[in-house]
Specification:
Blueprint lengths: L4 H10 L5 H7 L6 H10 L9 H10 L8
Length: 69
Amino acid sequence: MPILKDHKEILLTESDSKTLPEWVEYFNGLYTKNQIYSFCYRNDCRIKKIPDEVKSKIQSQNARKYHIN
């Protein structure tokens, strides 16, 4: 589904106020992360970056439970 005109205006004006997962949640999962990122990239809009502390916490939660031999 293409991004609606109203949502495009919101992204163009306020893209740097939220991170990518926050935008997906804001639109109630209507668009994927890739759709939002691609739209902002093509229109030279910056998206707020996830802080390193949060990123490392997410990566540690998604780490493997068992080591592969």
